[in-house]
Amino acid sequence: MSIRNSMSFFALIACLFWLGSCSPSVENPQQSAEWPEIFPDYVGVTVPVGIAPLNFCLDDQSADAIDVRVKGSKGGELHVSGREACFDEEDWHALLEANRGSSLTVTVCGRKDGQWTQYKDFAIHVSKYDLDEWGLTYRRVAPGYETYSHMGIYQRCLANFDEEAVIDNTQVPGMCVNCHTANRTDPAQMVFHVRGDHGATMIQRNGKPEWLAAKNELLGGSMVYPYWHPSGKYCAFSTNQTRQGFHVVKDERIEVFDLSSDIFVYDPERHMVISDSIVKTPDWSENTPVFSPDGRTLYFTTCRQQTYPSHFKEEKYNLCRIAFDPDKGKLGQQVDTLFNAVAMGKSLTWPRPSYDGKFILFTLIDYGYFSIWHEEADQWLLDLSTGEARPLDEINSQGADSYHNWSSNSRWIVFTSRRDDGLYSRLYLTCMDEKGHCSKPFLLPQRHPRRYYEATLYSFNTPDFTKSRVEFDSHAAARAILSDERVPNSK
Fold this sequence. Notes:
Blueprint: H1 3-22, E1 30-31, E2 38-39, E3 46-47, E4 57-58, E5 65-72, E6 77-82, H2 89-98, E7 103-112, E8 115-118, E9 122-126, E10 135-141, E11 152-157, E12 163-168, E13 176-183, E14 186-195, E15 200-205, E16 208-213, E17 215-216, E18 221-228, E19 235-246, E20 254-267, E21 272-274, E22 284-291, E23 297-304, E24 318-325, E25 330-339, E26 347-353, E27 359-365, E28 378-383, E29 389-391, E30 401-406, E31 412-417, E32 426-431, E33 442-443, H3 449-455, E34 459-466, H4 474-483
Parallel strand pairs: 1-8, 3-9
Antiparallel strand pairs: 2-4, 5-6, 5-7, 7-8, 7-9, 10-11, 10-34, 11-12, 13-14, 14-15, 15-16, 17-18, 18-19, 19-20, 20-21, 22-23, 23-24, 24-25, 26-27, 27-28, 28-29, 30-31, 31-32, 32-33
């Protein structure tokens, strides 16, 4: 036998030995009446066809092996075993497609101290509603920060585990990239904000970026918290003088508040600011504007100005609306309160209308608007046909549940939650039916979930769906940011 053949032979034996050790056979398992405790918790979740495999492992890290069988009610079966359950992407997608609108039955066996245990079967439901978007965009940032550490805007394909940076601040050192949004999940129209010595607001239309001054001198603040008009002709912003403070009490860490804020609409074609004194009041802060799906209403939050930082807990926002004429590019002359959170002793933040025009999803907290560090933060749903609102108890948790966005068909929601450890915000997805009821949320799948989530030092926030991969030249963007060349605005 030649040296090459000998080496191939021993490599084959080693490979077979490795496969055998990673594929243990289940012998004489004890039966358990309990569902398995797994990470992530995928017991009873509802997922879309095309989602990346829901790989998982046993919560008990002293268990040394897991064996999993997944059977579709309409046919098909997967079987994996080893230290964790990792499914082949192609086989997983085929199984979900074959069981659209039905369910999968998952049988889990775990081995600990040489003894196998077979747990109660659980279901994974395969939704009849498609998730048409290619993926997600989100910001990755350290969960607590005093300076701009490593952060960036990232994108992730939902069909697999591919993740890449759209832009991060290693390309623009010492700066913060944030407040990104696309028009109804279409990245051909995109905007984000850059804070720092070379601050700017980037507006991209049809793939062509323009760089505006970070602070709009006409309005006296930064162009932040953007939201596109469905026509793409306008983009709403608030102009915030943001301050950050640090709590010295237990379970409270960071507070963000505004010395003042107003809202306005920007016309990127004419580089014009559209504003009115009715949404630029001296004693009130107008914030977080969003357009209705028909483009004829501008929703926003508003609160009475307080003395900061001493009275920051009196900062409480209501949800309001004002008419908008897209043909004339003009705001209406009457502001109506749509949801009175102050009367409940609460504060409303991050309103997001569903694209079908039926609901507004928002976060309710005790005070302020920067909800991501508020443990009491819960998701609420306002039914625009009845005017009634309710907490989404089916998706809320004991941790902060906050930033959220809709898929283009208004059937899927992505949001952030600190339910896992109270420190890191992670991305969860849920399905909403025609009556506004949500399925059990599931954590964004990863190839090796425990390894991924334990190793990452970043929180995920401001997530949004994207219907296609974001095509963006980050190197050219970095040069543009550092050049300080900016497009002027007019009024």
